[in-house]
Amino acid sequence: MPIYEYVTLDEGCDYCAASFEIFQAINDEALETCPCCDEPVRKLLSGFMVGKGDPLRPSNLDSKGFTQYKRMGKGYYEKTAGPGPNAIADGDS
Ligand SMILES: [Zn+2]
User: Fold this and answer.
1) Distance of CA 66 from the midpoint of ligand 1 (Å)
2) Residues 4, 40: one domain?
3) Which residues contact residue 29 at a Cβ distance below 8 angstroms, ignoring those fewer than 6 apart?
4) Domain containing 2: what range?
C-alpha cells in the first residue's frame, strides 16, 4: 500500500503541523482534514515510496541531493541515500 504524506494548511496540531504519513489504498479518498484536530490538510507528493519499477535508485537520489529514508520501525527511519542525517526518529517513543 502506498504511503501518503499530509501537512496542515493552517496551524494544525503537533501531529499535522510537522506533516504525517498514512497508509491508504490507491482508491481511497484523500484526507481533507487532520484526524487529530480537524484542520484542513493537503497531500504532499511522496512518489518514490511507491515501488514498482521505480527508476529512482538510491545512488541517483544521492547525486541529485535528495535524502531518502527507509522506515525501520515505529517512528524510526534510517537513511538509504543522500546528505541528510543518518537516521531520524520522530516522537519520543
Ligand atoms: Zn492536526
Assistant:
1) 27
2) yes
3) none
4) 1-54
